[in-house]
Amino acid sequence: MTITEIHTLPAQHAVTTTDHAATTDDRARLAITVHQPGEPDPSRPLVVLVHGWAASRTVWHATAHQLAAAGHTVATYDQRGHASSTAGREPISIERLARDLDTVVGTLTTPERPVVVVGHSGGGYAALAWAAGLSATGPSAATGGASVKRLAGLVLVSTASHGQNTPANEVKMMGSKLFSRALGTPWLGRRLLGGTHGPSATLAAREANRRLFAGTAPAVRAACFASTQEMDQRAGLAGITAPTAVITGTEDKIVKPSFSQELASALPHAELHRIPGTGHMVPLETPQHIAYHVHQLVTAGR
To answer: What is the pTM of this model?
Structure first.
């Protein structure tokens, strides 16, 4: 276990972005943005960033830019039903979102190129399910059958493998019109979501989170939070042998740091990094920490 210090990656490259789309087997259209340096290095893994519930790929903007400026090719995408991605025909579940991740990886890479997957909160649940599927079925028959990529590493931010049983009344609130109207009022929305941040979160970070939450369809919010009821991925953790960085804010009230510590202990090759004073929304509060640990994981041994 380490207490993470602030690190800054060298900004050595100009960054370009291109938009793409992937279509899943149930006809969801997933909006993707690829961030890359002017001269991409094809020998490096593709880094795929997966956002959490009631967010969008824009939550990763600072992290993706820092990584691309340091020489990495990075993909962000909107999970189904969020922002510019459509909902598809199947209901939201952790397994369905893992298959969506598989579709994104399969769309953007060749079978020979490894990937590093970074998941925040609910995005981490999908990343764990995808990685466990790879380890359980082997590289030739990955989750959903579309990906035969080698998993070069995982970065799990503010996430857990179990114990996230959202109460029924909270699920109902997520889908209510009254809650949506409250989120649309800036000061009130920020107050309602205050528990998702640490005490030192900036106004800009708090407002960005409110806008993302308010911009997510109520039915999608409710379905996402309902999807973790009875979630327990602990049985598959021992088979995930990729190097893993588990990152938690010491002030996380949504996914408590004890869950991250347990997750890091259960994964065969994981290291826990604690960020003092940071809450649940690490990608908005301290994106430089995520970028640093992704960079370290990708470049280790190179």
So the answer is: 0.94
Is the distance from CB of 114 to CB of 149 less than 8 angstroms? yes
pLDDT 10s per residue in the chain (302 long)?
565 566 778 778 899 999 999 999 999 999 999 999 988 988 899 999 999 999 999 999 999 999 999 999 999 999 999 999 999 999 999 999 999 999 999 999 987 889 999 999 999 999 999 999 887 665 444 444 444 458 999 999 999 999 999 999 999 999 999 999 999 999 999 999 999 999 999 999 999 999 999 999 999 999 999 999 989 999 999 999 999 999 999 999 999 999 999 999 999 999 999 999 999 999 999 999 999 999 999 998 55
Q: How far apart are CA 226 and CA 10, in angstroms?
A: 41
User: Is 21:32 a contact under the CB 8 Å cutoff?
Assistant: yes
Rg (CA), the chain: 18
| Residue 243 to residue 255: CA distance in whole angstroms | 22
Question: Distance from CA of residue 223 to its chain's centroid?
Answer: 17
| CB distance 245 to 293 below 8 Å | yes
CA angle at 216 for the pair 211 and 218, rounded to the nearest 5°: 125
234 neighbors 127 (Cβ within 8 angstroms): no
Q: Residues 164, 94, 56, 300: what is their CA dihedral angle, to the nearest 10 degrees?
A: 90
Residue 232, Cβ neighbours under 10 Å: how many?
Answer: 12
Specify the amino acid at residue 92. I
3-class DSSP assignment, residue 77: strand
Least Cα distance to 259 among 121, 60, 55, 151 occurs for 121
Q: Which of 76, 78, 90, 98 is nearest to 30 (CA)?
A: 78
CB-CB contact of 222 with 229 (8 Å): no
Tell which residue, 209, 286, 280, has the closest CA to residue 251.
280
